[in-house]
Amino acid sequence: MDCCEKVKAKYCNYNETKLKGSYLRTFFCSDNKTYVVKFLNRDFGKRILPNEYISGLLAKYLKLPCHEIKLVEVSDYLIEGDDNLSTYSEGTHIGIEYDFSSNVLTPWRLNKVSNIEDIVKILVFDQWIYNSDRGAEYSNWLISNVNGFLTIIDHSEAFGWRNWEIKNLLTTLNDTLSYTESEIVYSKLCNLMLPTFNFSLELEGFINQIRGVPYEVIEDIVKSVPNEWKINDVESQHIIDYLVSRQGNIKNLMSSRNNRLLVGTG
């Protein structure tokens, strides 16, 4: 099943953006949009592309505030014609649509967030996919300069790690993310919700949405990962099982003692 549209990179426009990153480049593509492209590079993390792809498509299915992802075909002539791309490779990579009007979230931009109602959904989603680094990094959140709309980027550490193996999936299957003060971004965002939201109601609503994602949707997304990213059939099934297990257990995961700040019990 084709779960994700494919576009072709036309030229690298990295210098036109505010982007920084050692393995990131932006490309203007065949649909006349710019995408942040993460390349298949096992030195940076052999599971980064599958993690981004699976998590990004699940986020889209759940209508979370995120940026469109595409499979980006980068040809050899683009690589060979640009010395700045010499360490990269041709092939199919992951592209996240670049928003020229957004900036990285910062502590002084927190009070500008306009879609506060989406915060609890993001927290539950991260718990489901066990995205282990968004809670501590402002750089994994963007905010629009136009209307304060908060969006999420970077699912590289989904499933516990960017270099996961099956043994890691088995080890972290029932692990929980913390929403306490040790995860500074989650903590600050939770505090934004405190004056205006009924945690229990909002939490229960999105937990039910997570639990309602059909098995067939999860399976189709995971099994559509491009072959060249080297996720074999056994690993694919373990990712499916991981998501289904955490999906069924999501209420307990969200009720753990680590999450007392979110659920209001501490």
TrEMBL record:
The record's InterPro entries line, in alphabetical order, gives: HipA_2 (IPR046748)
Q: Name one GO molecular function term.
A: kinase activity
Superkingdom is: Bacteria
Keywords for this protein: Kinase, Transferase
Q: Where is the HipA-like kinase domain?
A: 25-161
This one is known as HipA family kinase
Species, as recorded: Priestia flexa
